[in-house]
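Box 3.1 A note on notation
Throughout this textbook, protein chains are presented in two layers. The first layer is the amino acid sequence; the second is a token string describing backbone geometry. Keep the layers aligned when reading.
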Amino acid sequence: MPVPFLKMSSKFFIGGILILGAMTIVIGQVAEVPTAKVTVKVLDEAGNPIPDAVVGFGFIEARPAWGTAKGEAVNVTTDKTGMATGSGHSDGLFGCGVQKDGYYDGWPSTIEFKDVVLGKWQPWNKVYPVVLRKIVNPIPMYAKKVSAKIPAMNQSVGFDLSVGDWVKPFGKGTTSDFILNMSKVQNGPKDFNEKLIITFTHNGDGIQVAQKTSKQDQGGSILNFPRNAPQEGYIDNWATTISYVSGSYKEERSNGIGYFFRVRTIKTNKGEIQSSDYGKISEDIDFFETGTSHPGISFTYYFNPTGTTNLEFDKSKNLLTNLDDLEQVHNP
């Protein structure tokens, strides 16, 4: 069985491989690659150990002057205490992933080797916890990676989540779930400010930042959102700006893991919510081709049309069909 995947946590990547600090010990004319040893402790969300999970360790030697890089893939099954240990030769390149039937894939938090002592990377055999999140109730949803030019500046444009397109006359959509308005102040080719405002159609619709809930030392999961959207805390007006002034580029970021949203809300005569639909936007809403006459935005959304708060997406049952490869959503 191959290494499940290599999930990295650092600012430095080369070809998808993390550089943790390459080092080779030279003894005479023979270069010996140091050995790394790491232990992973796999737990469920209640803190109980998970036995029989497969931990894939990837130990990689840097590319030599001639030839290709060498790699050691070590797959270890956790024992009854949830522990698995792997070791291999490494120039400081390392990856690790955890898989278990019935759970979402996970990985440890940042693993850093600081130096080498007697041919061993330090810290030697440090224990890293990984909390695996159970697969509970994945459901079909409308999910799409959107990368689109704003069709009209300085005016409201609707976006239909169940169609995945702008509302007519700019696209095939018929329901304005999001109403976007992009404006720009241009003082010169390298001096501009762009502002995106998102509003909503119905009283009770809105958006809110989704904050990270897992602890950093619990590792990561491909399901990084809560399984259910909150029922309170939505605001009906959200704005972000991007600017470029005198060579200085600045973009507002949410500092969260993304956003929850609520749309298609229907209220009773007493102002109570009778029905509404929920969804999430993973990561941030990004700009591209800024400073042009028609800049664009990109975001990934998941829309549950059933009226429940469930946001656990069954990626095999996307309600949007005929998406191209760049529009497909592969995470839950």
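The chain has a mean pLDDT of 86. The longest strand covers residues 273-288.
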